[in-house]
């Protein structure tokens, strides 16, 4: 039997690189150009695997110019957005501006925003709505800290974040949304949750959307939503995580800053084990 990811690839795998606060606008362009060449040389097929990068806000205009100018098969998004559309919100960035820069995605509720900037579930939900208002696909980030994991309540905790994040959305919006499960204890620590941990949570999230929220959403919503895993993903562990049935992609931090490493994650199908 040949092993494939998420059953039959009916949900196109998404490999997302979150640059966090790394690579200035000049470095970002050089990096992206190299990544595009490397993927081209490796015969990357964008119809099979989608690649997205999440540069700092100040890089986005340069990234847009490069991607559009050179017709790169790479999409991009922002790392955050304001829940508001315009006004006296010093330092915030509107989804409207991100849409003008032709961003496809926006990260919402990343654990570094939740912890370092004390973003609440309620604020995260407002940001999810703001993204949809401007035609951006939100990548809703959820996941538990170490204490919650040790107490064994990680599934319950993460599902509560999901329920709160999708509150007030339509079926179509939920089906379009991407959810990234990132156990906080595995982010940037080298501690990676095992493929079975990633599958356990992604399956629980899909199950919750299918069962608990079925009264709110259309029947095929759970089957269509894409679920990512994030936390110390590298070329060496990506394929084993991505072969799990309910895992449709990965959100990569540190390893997305190395062209060869990230390109190798994108090419994970080459590392899938054949049973
Ligand atoms: O957004 C990415 C995640 O925070 C994972 O970061 P990491 O791959 O450096 O652990």
Key attributes of the depicted protein:
glycolysis; 275 residues; isomerase; Aldolase_TIM; TIM Barrel; binds glyceraldehyde-3-phosphate; globular; TrioseP_Isoase_bac/euk; alpha/beta; cytoplasm; disordered N terminus
Q: What would your notes on this structure say?
A:
The chain is of the alpha/beta class. The protein has a single domain, classed as Alpha-Beta Barrel (TIM Barrel), CATH 3.20.20. 43% of the residues lie in helices and 13% in strands. An 8-stranded parallel β-barrel has the order 1-2-3-4-5-6-7-8, surrounded by 6 helices. Helix 4 links the parallel strand 3 and strand 4. The radius of gyration is 18 Å and the shape is globular. The N terminus is likely disordered. The chain binds glyceraldehyde-3-phosphate. Glyceraldehyde-3-phosphate binds next to strand 8.
Strand-helix topology:
Layout: H1 6-9, E1 14-18, H2 25-41, E2 50-54, H3 60-69, E3 75-78, H4 95-100, E4 105-108, H5 111-116, H6 121-133, E5 137-142, H7 146-151, H8 154-166, H9 171-176, E6 178-181, H10 195-212, H11 221-224, E7 226-230, H12 235-242, E8 249-252, H13 259-266
The chain binds glyceraldehyde-3-phosphate (G3H).
Glyceraldehyde-3-phosphate binds at residues 18, 110, 182, 187-188, 230-233, 251-255.
The global form is globular
Enumerate how many helices there are, as a single number.
Answer: 13
Bound molecules: glyceraldehyde-3-phosphate
CATH architecture level-2 label: Alpha-Beta Barrel
**Order of helix and strand elements from N to C terminus:** HEHEHEHEHHEHHHEHHEHEH
Average pLDDT: 93
**What is the count of β-strands?**
8
| Helix fraction by DSSP (H/I, runs of at least 4) | 40-55%
Terminal residue distance: 6 Å
CATH C-level class: Alpha Beta
Low-confidence stretches: 1-5
Largest sheet: 8 strands, parallel, barrel
Spatial strand arrangement across the major sheet: 1-2-3-4-5-6-7-8
The CATH homologous superfamily name equals Aldolase class I
Rounded to an integer in angstroms, the radius of gyration calculated over CA atoms is: 18 Å
Pathway: Carbohydrate biosynthesis; gluconeogenesis; Carbohydrate degradation; glycolysis; D-glyceraldehyde 3-phosphate from glycerone phosphate: step 1/1
Binding site for substrate: 18-20, 188, 232, 253-254
Active site: 110, 182
Subunit structure: Homodimer.
């Amino acid at each position: 039997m040949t092993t494939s990811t998420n059953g039959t690839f009916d949900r196109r795998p998404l490999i997302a690189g979150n640059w966090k606060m790394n690579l200035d606008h000049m470095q970002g362009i050089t990096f992206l150009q190299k990544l595009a060449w490397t993927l081209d040389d490796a015969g990357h097929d964008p119809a099979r695997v989608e690649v997205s990068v999440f540069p700092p806000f100040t890089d986005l205009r340069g990234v847009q110019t490069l991607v559009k100018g050179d017709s790169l098969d790479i999409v991009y998004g922002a790392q955050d957005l304001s829940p508001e559309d315009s006004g006296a919100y010093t330092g915030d960035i509107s989804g409207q501006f991100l849409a003008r820069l032709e961003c496809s995605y926006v990260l919402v509720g990343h654990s570094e925003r939740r912890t370092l900037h004390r973003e609440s579930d309620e604020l995260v939900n407002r940001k999810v709505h703001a993204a949809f208002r401007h035609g951006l696909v939100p990548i809703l980030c959820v996941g538990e800290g170490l204490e919650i994991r040790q107490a064994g309540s990680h599934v319950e905790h993460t599902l509560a974040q999901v329920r709160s994040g999708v509150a007030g959305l339509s079926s179509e919006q939920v089906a379009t949304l991407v959810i990234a499960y990132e156990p906080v204890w595995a982010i940037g620590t080298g501690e990676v949750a095992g493929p079975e941990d990633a599958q356990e949570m992604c399956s629980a999230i899909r199950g919750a959307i299918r069962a608990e929220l079925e009264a709110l959403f259309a029947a095929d919503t759970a089957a269509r939503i894409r679920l990512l895993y994030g936390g110390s993903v590298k070329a060496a562990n990506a394929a084993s995580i991505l072969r799990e049935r309910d895992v449709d992609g990965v959100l990569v931090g540190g390893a997305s800053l190395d062209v060869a490493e990230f390109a190798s994650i994108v090419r994970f199908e080459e590392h899938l084990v054949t049973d």
